[in-house]
Inverse folding.
C-alpha cells in the first residue's frame, strides 16, 4: 500500500497510485490527480508545450528556456506532472527529455466526456468534432 503525500500544496493530499484500469478507464481519483496537476499556470504551460512537442519531447533545459522558468522550479513542476502520470522522462546522453503522456491525457478527456450529453449525438458531435483538428493539423504539417 502506498502512503499518500502532499503533492499539490498545503492541505491537499493525493495518493501515489496511478493505475488506469485494464479497460482503459480512469477512476475519479486518478482524474482529480491529473486535473489538479494541471490547475496551476506554469504546469499547464509546461504540459501544453510538451503536448505540442510530441512525439520528440523537450530536454529540461529547453523547457526552462522557452518558459523562462528557473531549473529548480521547473524540476518541481515536472515532478508533480510526472506523479500525476501526465509526463514521462527519458535520459538521453547527458540530458533528460520530457514528453507528454498522451495516453493519460486521452484517458482524462474520455473520463470527462464519458457520459456527455446523455448520449445525444446532436449535442456531442460538435464537441467531438472540435477535438479532431489536433490530429489533422499535425498530419498536414508533415506533408
Amino acid at each position: 500500500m502506498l502512503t499518500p503525500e502532499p503533492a499539490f500544496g498545503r492541505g491537499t493530499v493525493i495518493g501515489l497510485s496511478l493505475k488506469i484500469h485494464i479497460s482503459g478507464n480512469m477512476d475519479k481519483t486518478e482524474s482529480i490527480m491529473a486535473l489538479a496537476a494541471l490547475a496551476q499556470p506554469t504546469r499547464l504551460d509546461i504540459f501544453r508545450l510538451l503536448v505540442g512537442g510530441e512525439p520528440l519531447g523537450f530536454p529540461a533545459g529547453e523547457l526552462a528556456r522557452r518558459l523562462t522558468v528557473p531549473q529548480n522550479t521547473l524540476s518541481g513542476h515536472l515532478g508533480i506532472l510526472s506523479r500525476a502520470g501526465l509526463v514521462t522522462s527519458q535520459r538521453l546522453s547527458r540530458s533528460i527529455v520530457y514528453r507528454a503522456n498522451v495516453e493519460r491525457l486521452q484517458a482524462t478527456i474520455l473520463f470527462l466526456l464519458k457520459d456527455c450529453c446523455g448520449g445525444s449525438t446532436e449535442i456531442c458531435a460538435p464537441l467531438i468534432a472540435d477535438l479532431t483538428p489536433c490530429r489533422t493539423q499535425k498530419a498536414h504539417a508533415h506533408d
Notes: The longest strand covers residues 87-92. Residues 1-23, 138-143 have pLDDT under 50 and may be disordered. The two ends are 49 Å apart (CA to CA).
